[in-house]
Amino acid sequence: MKRKFGLRLAALFSLALVFGSCKNQDSAKLKMESETQRQLEKLLLQPTLSNESRYAIINRIATKWLDDQKYDDLILYLTDYVERNPDDKYNAYWLLMTAYTYIQLRQERIAEYYFERIIRDYPDLKVKEQSIHFICLERLIQISTNHENRIKYFNTLINRFPSNVSITEMYVRLAREYEQIGEWTRALKTYNMFLEQPDASSIQITDMHDIYNYARNLIDFNNSPKNWTFKSLDSLAKSVKTAIYRYQPRKLDEYRSKVNFFAVSWRQDDSVPTGSVDFSMRNFMHGNRISVTDELIPGPTINEAYLKTKGWTIAVPTWYFYFRKVNFPADPDIHGTWEWAGIYIGEMM
Known about the structure:
Shape: rod-shaped
Oligomer: single chain
Number of helices: 14
Radius of gyration: 31 Å
């Protein structure tokens, strides 16, 4: 990625703020600081004061209050200043300081209001070569719990700051947000845009395990005819059993999933992607006496089940057919049906 997603609070403040480390130790120092404050505020009243000088004075006052953790005083001062000076070109920065002060107070919802206000009402401003709008968008994504808002933030990052972020990561995070609100048409389109990125198969995203295969399977399933699914688990199990009893490998090939069908050992590490296999059951049925148990074996959830079969090979005769309920809300006619998704080879562990 071109930059680490998200910025630490301390790093953001360090863009333009220098906090003093000294604490008030005695009344003399308090008196001196109070006098300094009055002198600074007096300077602000000068009509010929340049914008840069005004910025430096206000920044000095604000950073001192931050250092002393006088958050309420700081918020009141900055918001009052912005209200009285609507044309100050640094107002976006003063409101950014206000927003981060609310973060410090753990009042994220109020901070969210100010981050939004900066983007909506004020032109962008750079501090130490860092865009304030970009900083606000990143922080909004971190604290916002509203999916519609997060979709707006991700789209803005992609459109306005493509060189500042990993577009590949932005696409997949945006797709997840569309998923959360049931916007499946947009979700699938965005997942497809993610897959088209050159680094899609290699990107590592901490909170999204194996995201490439997830997106790949979702798109492949959406583009498939999905004609192997059954309305119920009983109808799927009955059809598979009948095909085995009658030695109909072509039927079995019709019944199995055509997207991400797997054949793995029980001992295979669950964290390793199974991949997809494509083979004909004919190669394993010919010349063998295949048997099947009457009852299904319940899976780890109510949406999964196993069918135990025997007689496939001399080395490993026992195979468990894995059935699962289809989870695909993008197509209500398919969502909730059942599919034969894979085979576990060997005795169940």
